[in-house]
Give the backbone structure.
Amino acid sequence: MTIVEDAKVAVQSAVQGVMSKLVPLAPDSWIPGGVPDPLIRQQHGLIGSEVSRLDGAFKVQGSARFAAEVALDDIVYAALVFATIPRGRIASITTASAEAATGVVLVMTHLNAPRMNKPAVFGSSPTAAGPSDLPILQDDRIHWNGQPIAVVLAETQEQADHAASLIETRYAPEPSTTTFEGAKAGGAQPGLFMGQPLLTEIGDAEATLAAATHRVDHVYRTPRHNHNAIEPHATTVAWVDGTLVIHDASQLVTAEAATIADVFDLTPEQVRVTSPYVGGGFGGKCLWDHQIIGAAAAKLAQRPVRIALSREGVYRIVGGRTLTEQRVALGANADGHLTALIHTGTVAMTPHNNMPEPFIAGTRGAYAADSFKLSVETVTMNMLANTFMRAPGEAVGTFALESAIDELAVELGIDPIDLRLRNEPEQDPTSGLPFSSRHIVEAWHAGAERFGWAKRNPVPRSHRDGEWLVGMGCATATYPYYRMPGGAARITLNRDGTALVEVAAHEMGMGTSTTTAMVAAERLGLPMDKVEVRYGDSIIPGAILAGGSQQTAAIGAAVIAAHNALVAELLKLAGNDSPLAGLSADQIGSEDGGLARLDDATKRESYVSILERAQRTSVTVMEQGSQPLELMHWSMHSHGAMFCEVRVNAVTGETRVSRFLGSFDTGRILNPKTARSQFRGGIIMGLGLALMEETQFDERNGRIMNPSLAEYHVPVHLDVPEIDVIWTDIADPHTPMGAHGIGEIGITGVGAAVANAIFNATGRRVRDLPITLDKLL
């Protein structure tokens, strides 16, 4: 970073430090969420009902238009060429054969690419979305094996792919670090995640561990993971009258538009990013090199460009989850009380971005203990930049922590659930903040009863069905509640009694547009079919990231603010002739297509009546959601209790998950139909993490060696049993709608639940994911 950027970060950190001390001291009523959301108290029937996804029919019928399906006249197709060394420079690149190939319109390399600024790396500012701080096609430098070094444009995709294969490159390699052991030998640095140190120390945990009457102390390892959305990344881009229009699959349209505007020295108004349908995202559908390369090539060719990554292309330039090496050491008394909780370790990063895997994040609020030592250190390798991947930190961190808890339960002879409940904290054990809502005990009891945990034999290898050893395991799931700043909503209320709600949000298949329509309809007191939701377009005000399981909260807070402004505006328009005359906005609620006094529903007037008398065809308001100060005032999390039954073949080592149950405590469930799907989807991804997912990284040259779904294995139908899902449905009084995020909680704890079940079945403890059959033979 530059000196100016360093100064900005220092100022932001100082301000955040002051706020983190002051906000917890403020009265609850001063904090967003201090007064419960009206949708917790007053409902019109939509919240909590099962509603099918509004976009579902369009996707089934094929009418949902994804980024690679936008039809533009005179379009050309792009193919990328990737570097094959981990570090060095391009000595020569020969493109003559490619340029002469049939249908080729342009070959662009660093030699003829337009001059562009480096993209601002994600986290360096509120609108930065770049994958790294590296320039793109601006020089001959190679920073990782797979870096794009050329793009070919042709009249068809086949012609572009063929021509790309004709480009010849010679490299001048330079020394590189492509082994984890070599990186560790070079020294580790303290980890930072989202500007905050990954370090928590309370008491002398090492000394307390040494003095503990019972202890476990082991190292757990997780491999690299790559993003594998069924819909690969694709972008259709065109320059139109000086404006750059990008049709993309993006989780952050507003930040992408702002970052790309800076790259090309444009104003934010000169870049428009649309993303009505993202496909699978999970943290991977953000800003990468291909969108910027496509825009630059379109500028040179003066024609629209479609750039769709192949499956291999996704592995080459889209980051994933980095590997981790974690030590978990637990000290306890004979009754199971934790005296020491140590969770430390090392992850690999790159020199050009800061995205460590924050595996201690879930540990900070999981269990009460007398002392803590939690830290993540980073080492540097020459490789593709890491990025967010579903439940970054918690997904792999809970594997280590919850496996260790199970090992301690065996050491103590205490039931694993009982041990967890004995160490249930009354307040956040590391921050000291009160929990906004925590009902994990209820989730454990309900899950244990439903799963039949009482039938489990704690003695390993005690249950056999022919060749199959059968075992049960459990683990705690946890993921924080987030609500990022910048969310805004625009509401237009029409005289015909319909409403348009616009949010710069994203639909990745989780039902965002459906839930937003439900919440807006409830707030406005309108039927759902009278509310239209627009989203996924950077010209809509606000910046809402589909990540961190926070989008619903960010949208909800923004719609709250806009609705309050709408009520105030309608009261002005109603005037003195209205039954509502003299009332203030906080005395009014929306009901049956109009406004009504909260304590006397006979004093009401319809939206249609108000607008007709004011001679208005519509009224529009736009407001930003409040700052998310609740995150500094309470400790806020989703929780779950995960139960797994496995069958392990005693002859072959083959593992089959035969039953799985997730029992969740995630506040109010807004739409049970889509929520159930989200929970199950997360659990399935967790089964992949536990049993098969692993990026094969060639440590000789830094190249990913299994860049396809033929070699990178993910769960298929035969790998997944019936998954049962239940929840507490207890509203959190301090969040919009009383809800917590649910997109990522489902993957957490799954790896440990599977590993613990395998131990119960076989007596073999596997601490190195994935748990493949060779580790069980």
Residues 97 and 166 are 6 Å apart (CA to CA).
